[in-house]
Every structure is written in C-alpha cells, then in structure tokens.
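Extended Data, record Fused response regulator/phosphatase
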Amino acid sequence: MVSASTAVIDLVFDLCEQCQNTHLRIIVAHGADDVDRLLEHRAISLVIVDRSSIGDIAYLNQIAASISPMPTVVLLSEGTAEEMVVALRNGADDVFSLGELNQHPQLFISSIERQLSRVRMIEEARFLRESLERSLDELKADQHAAQQLQQKLLPPPVRELNQIIFEYVLQPSLLLSGDFVDSIAINEYQTIFYLADVSGHGASSALVTVLLKNMTYRLVRNYNRGSSFDIQSPMATLHRVNRELLLTGLGKHLTMFIGLIDARDSTLTYAVGGHHPMPILAQGGEVAFLEGRGMPIGLFEQPVFDERRIALQPEYSITLFSDGILEVAEGGTLEEKENTLLRACMSKNLSPQSISDSIIPAGRMNPDDVAIMTVSRVKP
C-alpha cells in the first residue's frame, strides 16, 4: 500500500482483514523511495495507492506498469468523475473515494476480493506457463539429442561399396525424420540398400528408423554367423521387419523399397513394401519407373510383397524417393508429378542434390520429410 496518511492506512488494514479466504501481508510504502525499493526487491500481488500521497499522476502510471498484469487500486480524497477517469487512464483497475470506504465498505472489500481472485489466476497461469516453458526446453534438448543420434545412424552422404556409388539427401520437415536410408555390403559381391518412410513425424517415427537400422544390421550379423540368410533376400527381409515391427506394439507402419545388387551376374533383386513412388532406373539411354507393388510394413500379420529381378547394364543409375517428394513436385495430377521426377532423372550428372534442386524451390519449407537416394555404377 502507498500512503502517507495513518488514518487511511488503518482504514485499509481494517477493511482488508474482512476479506474472505485470503491470507494477506500488507506492506506500507510512505513515499516514492519506499515504493521503488519494494518494487525492486519484492514480488507484489496488488498495489493500493492513496492518490494524495503521490505527486505527478504519471507516477501512478509508472507503478501500474511495473506490476502489470497485477492490479492497481486507487483511493481518491474527493472522488470526482474527472479524477476517476484520469486514474483509470493511468493504469488503475478500480477507483474508490475515501468517502465510499466509510459509507460503503463492502464495495471496497468485494473489489479487493475480486482483484485477489484475479491475482491467483494470473499466478496460476504464470506457473503453468513457466512449467510449460521448462517442459518445452527439456523436449527441445531431447529432440536435439535424438536428432544427433539419428544423424549418426545414417550412412555417409556419399560412399562406395563393391564399386557402387551410394548418395542421398534427407530433408526432414521437423528436427527428427521418419525417412531413413542405408546401404550395406553383405559380402564382396552382394550389396543391399533401402529407403524407408515411416508413418507420421517426430520422435515416434524416428524411433522406428532406429529399430530398422538395428534389425537390418542384426540380419547381417546373422548372415556372417551363418545362422540366417534372410538378408540375401529382399522379400525375406521385409517379412522379418514386418514381424518385428508388429511385435513392438508401437502402432507404427512404414513403406519400404529394398534392393540387392549382385555383381556376379549384374542383377538387381528388389522387393516393395507399399512404397510409392517407385524408384527410377536409368540405363541404356532409357529412364523408367521400376515395376512392382506390395503391402505396407507393420499393418498385417501376413502381408504380400512383390519381389522381382532385373538385369543391370555396365552403367546405370537407380533413384529412390520418399513420398514427401510428391508433395513438392510440380504437377496437378499424380501422373504429372511422376513425369517431373522422370525429367529430373534424365540428367547426365545425376545426384540427389541436383535432383532436389530441380524439383524443390530454394527456401521452400517441406510439409513432409523428403529423402532422395541414388545408386549408380559407371565405367571406370
């Protein structure tokens, strides 16, 4: 309370003691110096200002602004309409004349109870906001840590395995991506690669990509131990991933294209798990989508996957996309968008980045994760 009058202070103390369900601690400031010190060192919930105890009306505005959004109540000696308007315009939430306090004390008591109720709501909202901000900060830290982990699980952006060049770009719509790519040399002549697109976004989808990495590398370890040869069959690999994803009970599913290149007979064996668009094969001067179909992974106990084998020429390029590319590819229909992808894959100096630059405008925010992977072999 701000007042230099003992009579006013005593009256306000008596009235505040009559407020219901409140535990008040009233601190008195007799002048500007006391006010400034209290505002600097204490958390104030409500200020009651005796107008006659402050000079310039602008000081009332300063006090009200310093404790906002907490309320300010002003007491006037006369209580004329003009003085009340001036007080309200300078930050007062309620105004009373000293005469009203004596003649109608209940009005002042009710006002203080309302203002204190407002204070409680403001403090609760502030607590909730601060709790939410702390939770968001923790969530951001967790997301960044998960992002670093996911980045470490991805292969190098460009690498060569068994004389095959693997390149990719991955542009997540959020910090974490539901798209994932990998390439693995099973032995000196067989190389497996895949592009997976997990449903949804964020941490839960990113978790599935971690599980996928673990599953495929476990199949490679089993092959090296001689306990399982599923990794040499794209279709068998999809069945293993489907079974293990269902066992997690995460309620997530994914689409996946997986290919196996065998250098002994220069063939590509591939299987499709609900993936679209299909990869584009460029060889012998022709560019076309691979054929095939299959069910998504993680939805059915007994899914049907399509496995095919084609011959590869000495020089070829296979380009894989996640379905996020269809969100940004030019064209009003699916056929037009697919033609856009075909045109992008006709370049001689093909790379995931060049394809991305030709399809996605610079600076555009992608509504979905976008992954592009190229698998290529050229004559030395």
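Summary. The chain has eleven helices and 14 strands.
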